[in-house]
Amino acid sequence: MKWIPLITLAMALCQISPLRAEERMIFLVRHAEKQLSADKDPQLSDQGQRRARDLVRHLHGIPLEGLIASQFIRTQATLTPLSEDRKLPIRVIPLQQPLATSLADIASQILQGEGNWVIAGHSNTLGPLIEKLGGPAIAPISENEYDKLFQLTLSQEQVVGFKTSRYGEPNAKSGE
């Protein structure tokens, strides 16, 4: 009988405490280092291939729902080791003009989806895509910057966290 008031109070607290909405993470990376070539769609360099493998190690233990890359070889090759490791296909979403429309389409698919995702993009697409997902404006990504990993944490389609980290070998000129 002594426990009834305590049990009643505990039950009442459970009913008025809202359940924490499930959070999920969206990771965005620039494609890894590409070969210096006149080709408009080059392969990854040896350093880029190492960075792509480093991404697998960096995200180890984080469950992933899917991977998104553009139509360009370098974005797909950046995600290939992760795709093979996790047995996940790479969803290719072509970037078309106007670019803002393509990025809005990618953001819409991510926001309406579930789970954690990794997106490999380009120096000129990551900033606008982060903003379309509800994240902050970021500084422009330089042409020699490949080691940044942007992480958006979403809860009920709203950004509740944003952080930038680095993975793989530091860029020679990243300044950090």
TrEMBL record:
User: Which InterPro entries does its entry note?
Assistant: His_Pase_superF_clade-1, His_PPase_superfam
Q: Which SMART domains match?
A: PGAM
Protein name, as recorded:
Histidine phosphatase family protein
Organism lineage string: Bacteria, Pseudomonadati, Pseudomonadota, Gammaproteobacteria, Alteromonadales
